[in-house]
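This part of the workshop introduces the protein records we will be handling. Getting from the letters to the tokens is the skill we practise here. The record below serves as our worked example for the rest of this section.

…
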Amino acid sequence: MFVAASTTCFPNLPLSDAFQKLVDLEYSCTEIAIHEHGRQFKPSEVVENLDRAIDICRNTHRLDVCSYNLKIDATDQEHYRQFAAICKLAKATKVVSITVPSAEVGTPFNQEVEHLRELVGIASVDGVRVSTSSQLGRLSADPDTVSVLCGNVKGLGLTFDPSHYICQPNAEVDAQKVIKYVYHVRLRDTSKEALQVRVGKGVVEFGRLLTQLRQVGYNRALCVDITEMPEVDHMAEMRKMRLLLESLL
């Protein structure tokens, strides 16, 4: 396993500036967010000029790229066209992991299964692995649903974010059952009441989590995904999380 950080940690910066911040913090690997409504990089831009997109994702200030984090707003066939272009980008930049959000709660289960099967099929052509991310308010917020989705969509994995299983004040959630499906990991400290708290002030048992991941043979990124908090030194939090995770490896 190795420590990485997402460009979503600096959502208001241009992509190149986000890379530089991560280099300054002594990270060596990054996950690049490709969000249609983000300021850094958009799926529609990848479709418009794939060669330029490849150049952008290679010019990372010497950071290795471990994964792409997608939010595609386009629907129907345009959605799949943009996704296919991003898979071409991943292949060209030697990235094997792409994360997509699962559908919102209330979406028919069979509809989501068919959608994810289509994505996994498209990605397999370029040797890319697709995972859906743990997220409150979506189907992936329930570990049992994740298990059924991964069981019904051959090749689908989980981008495991324990915060979204911990911050459920009215429910006891057993995330252990989804560990075997993990393709990628995102981390911050969290509590029952708040999705993100200062590092060391939450209840995430990072050492226990790494032990669980080792037991299933996980050897990929531990990706820091911390957003800015009022009156908190963001750079210090990012540095503290990197040092904590490195001390556990």
Q: What stands out?
A: Strands lie at 2-6, 29-35, 64-71, 97-101, 129-133, 157-160, 182-187, 221-224. The mean pLDDT is 94. The two ends are 7 Å apart (CA to CA). Residues 199 and 241 are 7 Å apart (CA to CA).
